[in-house]
Each structure stands twice: as C-alpha cells, then as structure tokens.
Specification:
Blueprint: H1 3-12, E1 16-28, E2 32-44, E3 50-53, E4 62-64, E5 69-75, E6 78-85, E7 90-105, H2 119-128, H3 130-134, E8 139-146, E9 152-158, E10 164-169, H4 176-193, E11 197-203, H5 208-217, E12 220-223, H6 226-239
Parallel strand pairs: 10-11, 11-12
Antiparallel strand pairs: 1-2, 1-7, 2-3, 3-4, 5-6, 6-7, 8-9, 9-10
Helix pairs in contact: 2-6, 4-5
Length: 240
C-alpha cells in the first residue's frame, strides 16, 4: 500500500495521523495566507482537526478546528490534503511534495485532566499582573472584599476611567451560577458606593449559558490560564 493509500485509509477510519513532509500551505477563508515550501509536521486528528507545525515554536502556523472535512487527492508523486469547513467557507490546502515520515494509529484517551493550582493562585496572579491576566491595566483596590450577605468579591480594581471593577475568579469552566454571583457583587457595590461598577468573570472557560447570561446582564468575561498564572507567580517568587 502506498503512502497516499495509507493516508486515505487512516483519515477514513478516523485515526491519528502524523505526517512529516515537505509542503506548501494555502489558506482561504476569513483571510488569506500562503506558506511557501518547507519541512512541516502535519497532525490530522480523529475529530477532523488539522494542525500544521514548523520545525521550531510551539504554536501551529496553520490549523483547522474539529468538525473539518479532510480529503486526499493525488498519488505518491505529489498529493494534496484538502481541509474544508463548509459553514464558514474556509479551506486549507496542503500540497505535499515529499514525505519524510508517516505514522497513523487509533488512540484511546478518556482520562480526566487535572491541573495543579487553585482559584487562589489565579486570584493572586490577577492581582499581581492584571495586564497580562486580564489584558487591561487596572489598579488593585482589594482582595476577598467582604460584601456582607452578598459574599466576598475575589478582587476589586479601579480602571483607567475611575470605574470600580469587580473580578470573580473560577478555576474551572464558569457556569451561569457564577454569572449571577458576580451580578450580586456588582449590584451590592453600586448601591454602597453610588459609582459605576464593571463586572468581569475570569475563568479558563465558560459554558454557553454563562456567556449568554453575561451578555444579557452587561457583564464582561476574560479567559485566563493556569500557565499564565504560574508564570506571573514565578516572577514574584524570583523577585523576592
């Protein structure tokens, strides 16, 4: 069986494919890009996601998300991997000129992912470097601020326009309950201060219902990562 035949069979049977090849990559969709000929690592996953890596760096130079349709045209003298997303009309074309390595396998992975660290680490990192963690220059006012019967706000800041900013931090994907928790804090501080108060929910991810509720309530959200938090906290440790 030729490499192209093996590749087609692997894609058809939804196996993981690792292809090291000399190729050019063209993308058309929300924008356009062309990556000239070079050696690349191409990953095709069983969910339809396709990732193209250059020899250096950890970020992909091109990718298509899960749900993409992958097809292979041509033969071992030269073939093309075509990745399309019909709903968004996106197309990734990988023209393979030569293959250095090909591997495919059916993988099983149902393990639960656990990241070391807690909400306290995220909160400390946000207070220490809100610019990196939240993407905005904010001045810290307080942490674990008591709001009486409403609870405790994780962090309160002042923004560049003098508005108070309440930040509620969640270690895992934030649900709609976290949105209304944040809303309570914002409304309580508004009543007590008479000032304009913004609310930001900070978490690694958000449920669809949470995002809908945030938009409906006029609240904001920021995606934060434990990796960034560790980098911020490690700088603090090194400084002291």
């Amino acid at each position: 069986m030729t490499v192209v035949e093996e590749l087609r069979a692997a894609v058809s049977s939804k196996k993981l494919v690792v292809l090291v090849a000399r190729c050019t990559v063209t993308y058309e969709g929300r924008a356009s890009s062309k990556l000239e000929e070079g050696d690349r690592v191409i990953l095709i996953k069983e969910d339809g996601s396709v990732i193209v890596h250059r020899p250096v760096g950890y970020e992909p130079v091109n990718y298509q998300p899960p749900g993409s349709v992958v097809s292979v045209e041509g033969d071992d003298d030269g073939f093309r991997i075509i990745v399309t997303r019909t709903k968004r009309r996106e197309r990734l074309l990988i023209e393979v000129h030569s293959v250095k390595h090909f591997f495919s396998a059916k993988l099983e992975d149902s393990a639960r992912f656990t990241m070391w660290g807690d909400e306290e680490d995220l909160r400390r990192a946000i207070l220490a470097d809100p610019s990196k963690m939240l993407g905005e220059n904010l001045k810290p006012v307080g942490a674990e601020v008591s709001l009486g019967s409403a609870g405790f706000a994780d962090a309160v800041f002042v923004d560049s326009e003098g508005n108070l900013v309440v930040v509620e931090v969640k270690r895992e994907k934030a649900s709609v309950e976290a949105v209304y928790q944040l809303k309570r804090y914002v409304e309580r501080i508004k009543r007590e201060t008479g000032r304009k108060v913004r609310g930001i929910l900070a978490a690694p991810g958000f449920t669809v219902s949470a995002i809908r509720a945030l938009k409906a309530e006029g609240l904001e959200y920021r995606q934060v990562s434990m990796k960034d938090a560790r980098e911020v906290l490690s700088r603090l440790t090194a400084f002291w």
